[in-house]
Amino acid sequence: MDIKTVGVVGAGQMGNGIAHVFALAGFDVTMTDISPEALTASVDKIAANLDRQVTREKMTQAERDAAMSRITTTGTLTDLAKLDLVIEAATEKEAVKHAIFAELLPHLGEQTILTSNTSSISITRLASQTDRPERFMGFHFMNPVPVMQLVELIRGIATDNATYRSLEAVVEKLGKTSASAEDFPAFIVNRILMPMINEAIYTLYEGVGSVQSIDTSLKLGANHPMGPLELADFIGLDTCLAIMNVLHDGLADTKYRPCPLLTKYVEAGWLGRKTDRGFYDYRGETPVPTR
Ligand SMILES: CC(=O)CC(=O)SCCNC(=O)CCNC(=O)[C@H](O)C(C)(C)COP(=O)(O)OP(=O)(O)OC[C@H]1O[C@@H](n2cnc3c(N)ncnc32)[C@H](O)[C@@H]1OP(=O)(O)O
Ligand SMILES: NC(=O)C1=CN([C@@H]2O[C@H](COP(=O)(O)OP(=O)(O)OC[C@H]3O[C@@H](n4cnc5c(N)ncnc54)[C@H](OP(=O)(O)O)[C@@H]3O)[C@@H](O)[C@H]2O)C=CC1
């Protein structure tokens, strides 16, 4: 299927990055969110990111304006129903995703490909709740979407080849690289990355190092662009905890036990950058470690 029109559900950090790269690649994008404020903030963020790319001469003003003109927003989820491709990028909670699909499905175009940007949840289980498991896939972008090269493609048990090939072609058109992952908890990137982040939080919890020493160690000792605690704040601690819970429940191995300190931060509502506080406090001019 030749995909031209794309719907994005959820205008958080991933939704806005996804809309950004699709609009820039020439797709018409419609975004929706339950929060009108999130939609406005998302469009502002895309505009600011594109402006920076113009300033740094990565694109022309005309390309920036054309990309912005391809993005529309709506508060009505069913406005996305007749598009070629829908990408669900709402909060990492299975019940939220099911509710979105349940509302959308009665209106969804027969040929529309439905995908989820989930970081960890079973694609087969999500697909089984829809009327189109053969045209349902995991379509996993990395954060920040405009910068990261990889997109994981995850087939559910029933996904057909035509759907897989359509999404492979879309990734190519975005100028990104796809990697195929089987449908097991957290797929490839997060199966490996998230236990590393969780272990960094245990290292903090057990007093082996401070926030600063743990992040400095991995940045300068392993050449990671961000320390694991800085990265956890960047991803969102609620998302990190949700992924660890999927790994723990899905693989039934205690090595995936979420660190109690991670749970405590989430319970406090300290979710990282998006709430201005996590392992660092972002309310001042420079981030200050909270432990
Ligand atoms: C949880 C999941 O399900 C899966 C995941 O996504 S896991 C998370 C994966 N992501 C990572 O591991 C990110 C690790 N961090 C990094 O790679 C880097 O720190 C970074 C790319 C985010 C920033 O790099 P940096 O060198 O410190 O910053 P900086 O020089 O300011 O930025 C580099 C470029 O990225 C752009 N950029 C940085 N942050 C951005 C953002 N949030 N949105 C858009 N563009 C951004 C900058 O504009 C700059 O672009 P140009 O090269 O065109 O000028
Ligand atoms: N953060 C990351 O690094 C990555 C995340 N992902 C995945 O992408 C998805 C989104 O994550 P992320 O962008 O970080 O999360 P955010 O918390 O930044 O954004 C989620 C957005 O979805 C909105 N939302 C919640 N319920 C609904 C609904 N029923 N309909 C429409 N919108 C809704 C939220 O609104 P409100 O705030 O009002 O609840 C919020 O604006 C998750 O599945 C996550 O696992 C994938 C790759 C990387």
Automatic annotation (TrEMBL):
InterPro entries: 3-OHacyl-CoA_DH, 3-OHacyl-CoA_DH_CS, 3-OHacyl-CoA_DH_NAD-bd, 3HC_DH_C, 6-PGluconate_DH-like_C_sf, 6PGD_dom2, NAD(P)-bd_dom_sf. The record marks 140 as: Important for catalytic activity. NAD(+) binds at residues 10-15, 33, 92, 97, 119, 143, 274. One of its GO terms (molecular function) is 3-hydroxybutyryl-CoA dehydrogenase activity. It holds the Pfam family 3HCDH_N. Residues 5-182 form the 3-hydroxyacyl-CoA dehydrogenase NAD binding domain. Its EC number is 1.1.1.157. Keywords: NAD, Oxidoreductase. One of its GO terms (biological process) is fatty acid metabolic process. Residues 187-282 form the 3-hydroxyacyl-CoA dehydrogenase C-terminal domain. NCBIfam families: PRK05808.1 (NF004474), PRK07530.1 (NF005715). Belongs to the 3-hydroxyacyl-CoA dehydrogenase family. PANTHER family: 3-HYDROXYACYL-COA DEHYDROGENASE FAMILY PROTEIN (PTHR48075), 3-HYDROXYBUTYRYL-COA DEHYDROGENASE (PTHR48075:SF5). This is 3-hydroxybutyryl-CoA dehydrogenase. It comes from Pontivivens nitratireducens.
